[in-house]
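Journal club prep — side note

Before the paper discussion, L.F. wants everyone to see what a predicted structure for a comparable chain looks like in token form. Sequence:
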Amino acid sequence: MISHACCPASGTPVEVYAHPAWQEDLVPWIWDGGELGRAVRSERVPYAAVLTDAAQGTTLLFIERPGRQLDYLVGAFSPEGLEGGYGDPHAPRSIVLPPFPGRAAQALTDRYLPAYEQAVHARQTAAIAAVLADIRSEHDTWQTLNASGRYSDATPLSAAALGASTELFLDHAWRRFLTVVDHAPTLLDRCRPANSPWPDDATALARLADAVIDAEALLDEIHGDAVPEQERRARAWPAIETWLTDGDAFLRQARLSAPHRRPALPVTAPGRPLAAARPAYRSH
């Protein structure tokens, strides 16, 4: 659907949106709380340079700033597993880049990438907090149901119905817990409880890390079709329960450990690749 041209100056791929519908395909994936997000939604964007850093899992979008011939905007696509488009309160704000390679690269390194990394950290932390709150709420509901032996309308609950309710709860909890498995390792690595007001959280964080390792091992076995459902439920619950018990310690440590800086991507400022893309666009 999207035509591609390659910039001889930098090797950066340029996507050409010869039809407005192709540009519209970007809208759900742009993770931005600033000018670039608004521009992609409401302005004509005929072409853009896309840069992906596979090691960091970062994909950036460069466009000419609408109404300005010399300035450019840079913003990001949603990180994998953390979809949230324009308007997400955790999204970083795009910045304006000048058409000078050195200054543009400096702005990208010193301003945008640190803000992006902080935004990803906050978004991951919020996602885990939401998962734990959701599982805890459903667990409380299940416990109430189990203790009373009745539905909310006072109808008696049969043993079979209780068993089905338990399986449903455990299955939903496991699916939600996969968000923790995906994102907690990076956040745990950044936590430094000894440097925080709660140094004793180190013990809880060690238990949480072990629980994630157990869940990762279980997930690997599940992918190999080697774990029956009943066994999976029995093995998954201890890891989930550990996170319900110690999750608050993790959340307060994670919120203290947001990164301040990250390495620059190996990128030449986008002024040249976008300018070089104009002939390709006009040829369509």
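L.F.'s comment for the group: Residues 42 and 132 are 37 Å apart (CA to CA). Keep this in mind when we get to the figures.
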